[in-house]
From TrEMBL:
Keyword Flavoprotein (UniProt): no
An individual GO BP term: regulation of DNA-templated transcription
The protein's name: Response regulator transcription factor
Organism the protein comes from: Bradyrhizobium frederickii
Domain HTH luxR-type: 141-201
Highest taxon of the lineage: Bacteria
Gene Ontology terms for molecular function: DNA binding
Length: 206
């Protein structure tokens, strides 16, 4: 939608599946975004040097080469929020992506309208003053010792089953602790929790 003064900005998209790429482009354009699709990270990086997108949606290849691209984007001072998608998602991969600068980690398959909503949320959060984004930490309810242990394992990239084995608990019990941690931290999901930990400090220090 070139020339549309109501545009919410440009979204750069790397997506190997042609059908998914077309669906994402159509949905984003309907939501007043301009969409530029790229075949690979090198071409996106070159374009990002010349213009600042409102957001980047990047598919993460199985070999994780996208993480290097993500770090290079940050080194080139492209500070737009980057949402990473992957068909081989895991907590460990989410940790790596967030440490490398991703604003969100989204597992495939996903619903296109959900992606648009998460892009909207990432852009809105990015536009907020940094102090307001940090305000949740001082008010975070203290974690119990067991919750702090679970959080430490989550941050290390362990799955619920792996945490359960290490702590000699059932996976369901670990899920209960995890739910309590998310509630206390005010996080929407584990990805949101990890992003806050690595971006703003761990709530276990509160």
């Amino acid at each position: 939608m070139p020339g549309n003064t109501l545009s919410k900005g440009e979204v750069f998209v790397i997506e190997t599946d042609a059908a998914s790429r077309e669906q994402l482009s159509a949905a984003l354009q309907q939501s007043a975004y301009n969409v530029i699709c790229f075949a690979d990270g090198a071409s996106l990086l070159s374009e990002a040097k010349a213009r600042m997108p409102a957001c980047v949606l990047m598919e993460l290849p199985p070999d994780r080469s996208g993480l290097d691209m993500l770090r290079r984007l940050r080194q080139e001072n492209c500070m737009a929020p980057v949402l990473v998608t992957s068909a081989n998602g895991s907590i460990a991969m989410a940790v790596d992506a967030i440490k490398s600068g991703a604003a969100d980690f989204i597992e495939k398959p996903f619903r296109t309208h959900d992606i648009v909503g998460r892009i909207d949320a990432a852009i809105d959060e990015f536009a907020q003053p940094r102090t307001s984004r940090q305000g949740w930490l001082p008010g975070c309810e203290p974690l119990t010792a067991r919750e702090a242990d679970v959080l430490e394992h989550l941050a290390a990239g362990l799955t619920n089953k792996e945490i359960a084995r290490r702590m000699h608990l059932s996976a369901r019990t670990v899920e209960g602790y995890r739910a309590g941690i998310l509630k206390k931290a005010g996080a929407k999901n584990v990805t949101d929790l990890l992003r806050r930990i690595f971006g703003q400090g761990s709530p276990t220090q509160a």
